[in-house]
């Protein structure tokens, strides 16, 4: 994430610098001294020399994935072949799509990840508000329980969760992948800390104006902790978008499965991975997330700078 | 299949211990299937070889369903072998196992310990199973003379070699003994200045314990019995000392990874490679040079441990379902389907008659390397069928790695792995009895 922050900084520096260069060019046209122009350019843009390699470093896995997805199988390992594919071989993409119904998986992934996010935002907001601003018996004890939940590895409770879901009759349905994650101890903790930083004078003032708890929450607290909500949202979406083991365990039919299971078909241990198709599949799986990130880039970065999460 | 996932076995123990009390209650809970409508079976399978195997399996299942109106099989892709095992054990834990599944053969004792497997000895004896299946493959499903599964997709390690590199080094034939292997590896190792350009030999890491068992078998030692391991025997120690010798001679890397070693071979960074027959199709079609396939070199004898898995039938289900499951398992392993499956995947066909079929004969003409794996299968036996084999494999791999890295000598590493493994096995068996 740090690199992205730097990228934006680089971008903004670039804009200011380019106006400056235009000015410098005008000056140079009057007083032709190429050396001083270069020197000035360097002094204004020295950050680029540090940032450009960092950008490349951050982008290189992405570039490599895309390039590999366009190669032929022999080319991937041929030491004589260059980094760039000799011919752009788009055939890997249809070949990947033929392995599994990726379109259906994509819809399921969006439904599951989206439902989890919405449900979590509701539950953690209410829970965090209660823990931050209300007094009730056993508050500390209950909060400790919430924190304990964060410490349990998900694998330790697979079987109990599975039994519960079966009793609810949810095995092999989309809700089976959603229900166990509708509450989040981590999110509650994060949001409670954010709520506690909101000055209580603000909520007192709202109460004097006749607001109830829900109105205070909606009009006072939530607008102020937006960055935390966004930060939590990213973490939640990335986690559940990429989750493999739980969806594999609770689903049987193609019609309810998610993207990582489709990817799993291509990463085979007996024979070595099918790299070209695996990379084509990876490109397909990460691109929706990348797209969302690019669209909301500025807001995401703001929120991370705000909450100090890196 | 992912050797680094230690938590898998922890989860499995949790699931297994939860399953034991439940299974005791099982017979009373079996619901009789409705008389009307087809018998519905669930079949969980892993995909261990890249390609469109899940398409092939679901195609086979669709064919079966079309030919058998009374039975409806649902094919459920369940990830890797480890994932599949976990999914099955979880369903056993809630007393609703799938009718059939396809685990790795090493899991036999694990499932027997859970009392999960239907004994199919009598059904098989009434059929042609004992006559037509290759005995080496059938043996991987036998415990105490009873049969608990039908082999479906066996594989063994073989020695792959780079024919171009052999030609350049003036070697005319693949090594046949350990000594020849060392000599060939020395000739094939390329160094320019102090820099290594090519290893002579690489043992596919991650599953090197599997290949190590082959070495033990080449020394006339089966390094396990159904309730203990025998890693501390002199034959095993000698095998590991030979590996160490190759590492010390600078012809073999001390460590590698399963996929990385295949990639190195394809990139020409190693001239010889121990890897699964399951990789044959991938290596053959991805390499920019001619790929040779040979027997694993012998010491006292040829020997191989078998990977891959059998079809197993659940004990905890109605008789009607058991019968339908048998029909399905029998159909999946019939001559015609085995020939098709072997040809499409690179796994070895399990029936003699399948190898004799016209389809396989033409395949052997096209890919003579497949014959090597079949011939070697005559020397193959089951791989590490002990309870808790996941943990045992980790102990053994740690001993191999530490020895090759020069931290301990072969004998003390293997003795330690042996004792740790046997303690683990005893603990598990006590728990299953109690």
What would you say about this model in short?
The complex is a heterodimer of chains A (310) and B (434). With 310 residues, chain A is mostly helical.
Task: Spell out the blueprint of helices and strands.
The complex is a heterodimer of chains A (310) and B (434).
Chain A: H1 2-30, H2 34-69, H3 73-77, H4 92-99, H5 102-133, H6 139-151, H7 158-167, H8 175-178, H9 185-197, H10 200-208, H11 213-224, H12 226-241, H13 245-250, H14 259-264, H15 275-295, H16 297-307
Helix pairs in contact in A: 1-2, 2-15, 4-15, 5-9, 5-12, 6-9, 10-11, 12-16
Chain B: H1 7-24, H2 26-29, E1 39-45, H3 53-67, E2 71-77, H4 81-93, E3 100-101, H5 108-113, H6 121-126, H7 129-132, H8 135-138, E4 142-143, E5 146-147, E6 150-155, E7 157-162, H9 163-168, H10 178-188, E8 190-192, E9 195-203, H11 208-218, E10 224-225, E11 228-229, H12 234-248, H13 258-266, E12 270-276, H14 280-286, E13 291-294, E14 304-313, H15 319-332, H16 335-345, H17 352-356, H18 358-366, H19 369-377, E15 380-382, H20 389-404, H21 410-433
Parallel strand pairs in B: 1-2, 1-3, 9-12, 14-15
Antiparallel strand pairs in B: 3-14, 4-5, 6-14, 7-12, 7-13, 8-9, 10-11
Helix pairs in contact in B: 1-4, 11-12, 20-21
Describe the protein in words:
The complex is a heterodimer of chains A (310) and B (434). Chain A is mainly alpha-helical and 310 residues long. Chain A folds into 2 domains: 80 residues, no CATH class; 166 residues, MetI-like fold. Chain A is 75% helix and 0% strand. In chain A, helix 5 crosses helix 9 and helix 5 runs antiparallel to helix 12. The termini of chain A are close together. The N terminus of chain A is likely disordered. By secondary structure, chain B is α/β, with parallel strands linked by helices. Chain B has 2 domains: 217 residues, 3-Layer(aba) Sandwich (D-Maltodextrin-Binding Protein, domain 2); 197 residues, Periplasmic binding protein-like II (D-Maltodextrin-Binding Protein, domain 2, 3-Layer(aba) Sandwich). In chain B, the strands form 4 sheets. In chain B, strands 1, 2, 3, 6, 14 and 15 form a 6-stranded mixed β-sheet that branches. In chain B, strands 8-9-12-7-13 form a 5-stranded mixed β-sheet. In chain B, strands 4-5 form a two-stranded antiparallel sheet. In chain B, helix 3 links the parallel strand 1 and strand 2. In chain B, helix 1 packs parallel to helix 4 and helix 20 runs antiparallel to helix 21. The longest helix of chain B is centred in the C-terminal third of the chain and has 24 residues. The radius of gyration of chain B is 22 Å and the shape is globular.
């Amino acid at each position: 994430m740090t690199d992205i922050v730097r990228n934006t900084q680089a971008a903004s520096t670039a804009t200011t610098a380019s106006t400056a260069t235009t000015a410098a060019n005008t000056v140079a046209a009057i007083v032709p001294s190429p050396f001083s122009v270069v020197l000035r350019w360097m002094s204004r843009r020295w950050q680029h020399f540090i940032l450009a390699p960092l950008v490349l470093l951050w982008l290189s896995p992405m570039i490599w994935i895309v390039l590999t997805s366009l190669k032929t199988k022999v080319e991937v390992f041929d030491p004589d072949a260059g980094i760039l594919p000799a011919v752009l071989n788009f055939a890997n993409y249809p070949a990947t799509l033929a392995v599994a119904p990726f379109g259906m998986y994509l819809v399921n992934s969006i439904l599951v990840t989206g439902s989890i996010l919405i449900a979590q935002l509701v539950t953690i907001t209410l829970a965090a508000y209660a823990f931050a601003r209300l007094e009730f018996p056993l508050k500390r004890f209950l909060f400790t329980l919430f924190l304990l939940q964060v410490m349990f590895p998900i694998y330790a409770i697979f079987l109990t969760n599975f039994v519960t879901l079966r009793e609810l009759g949810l095995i092999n349905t989309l809700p089976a992948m959603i229900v166990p994650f509708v509450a989040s101890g981590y999110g509650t903790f994060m949001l409670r800390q954010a709520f506690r930083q909101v000055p209580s004078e603000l909520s007192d003032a709202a109460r004097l104006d006749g607001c109830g708890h829900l109105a205070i929450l909606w009009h006072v607290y939530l607008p102020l902790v937006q960055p935390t909500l966004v930060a939590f949202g990213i973490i939640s979406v990335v986690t559940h978008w990429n989750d493999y083991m739980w969806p594999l365990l609770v689903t049987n039919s193609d019609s309810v499965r998610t993207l990582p299971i489709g990817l799993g078909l291509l990463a085979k241990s007996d024979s070595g991975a099918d790299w070209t198709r695996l990379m084509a599949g990876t490109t397909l799986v990460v691109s929706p997330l990348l797209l969302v990130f690019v669209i909301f880039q500025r807001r995401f970065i703001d929120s991370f700078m705000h909450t100090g999460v890196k | 299949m992912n050797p680094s996932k230690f938590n898998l076995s922890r989860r499995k123990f949790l699931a297994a211990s939860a399953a034991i009390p439940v299974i005791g209650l099982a017979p009373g809970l079996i619901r009789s299937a409705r008389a009307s409508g087809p018998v519905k079976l669930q079949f969980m399978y892993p995909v261990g070889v890249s390609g469109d195997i899940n398409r092939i399996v679901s195609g086979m299942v669709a064919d079966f369903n079309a030919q058998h109106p009374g039975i409806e099989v649902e094919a459920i892709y369940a990830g890797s072998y480890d994932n599949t095992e976990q999914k099955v054990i979880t369903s056993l834990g809630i007393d609703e196992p799938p009718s059939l599944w396809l685990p790795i053969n090493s899991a036999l004792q694990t499932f027997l310990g859970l009392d999960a497997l239907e004994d199919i000895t009598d059904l098989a004896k009434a059929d042609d199973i004992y006559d037509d299946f290759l005995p080496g493959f059938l043996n991987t499903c036998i415990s105490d003379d009873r049969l608990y599964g039908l082999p479906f997709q066996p594989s063994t390690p073989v020695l792959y070699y780079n024919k171009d590199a052999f030609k350049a080094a003036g070697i005319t034939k693949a090594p046949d003994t350990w000594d020849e292997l060392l000599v060939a590896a020395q000739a094939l190792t390329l160094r320019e200045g102090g820099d290594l350009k090519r290893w002579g030999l690489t043992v596919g890491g991650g599953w090197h314990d599997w290949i190590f068992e082959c070495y033990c078998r080449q020394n006339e030692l089966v390094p396990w019995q159904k309730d203990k391991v025998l890693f501390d025997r002199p034959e095993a120690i000698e095998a590991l000392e030979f590996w160490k010798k190759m590492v010390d001679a600078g012809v073999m890397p001390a460590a590698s990874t399963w996929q990385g070693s295949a990639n190195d071979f394809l990139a020409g960074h190693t001239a010889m490679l121990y890897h699964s027959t399951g990789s044959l199709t991938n290596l053959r079609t991805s390499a920019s040079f001619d790929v040779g396939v040979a027997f694993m070199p012998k010491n006292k004898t040829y020997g191989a441990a078998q990977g891959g898995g059998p079809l197993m039938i659940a004990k905890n289900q109605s008789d009607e379902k058991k019968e339908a499951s048998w029909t399905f398992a029998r159909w999946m392993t019939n001559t015609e389907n085995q020939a098709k499956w072997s040809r499409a995947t690179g796994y070895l066909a399990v029936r003699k008659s399948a190898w004799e079929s016209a389809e396989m004969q033409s395949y052997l003409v096209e890919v003579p390397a497949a014959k090597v794996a079949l011939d070697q299968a005559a020397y193959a036996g089951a791989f590490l069928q002990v309870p808790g084999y996941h943990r045992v494999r980790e102990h053994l791999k740690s001993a191999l790695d530490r020895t090759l890295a020069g931290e301990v000598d072969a004998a003390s590493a293997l003795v330690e792995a042996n004792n740790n493994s046997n303690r683990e096995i005893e603990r598990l068996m006590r728990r299953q009895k109690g």
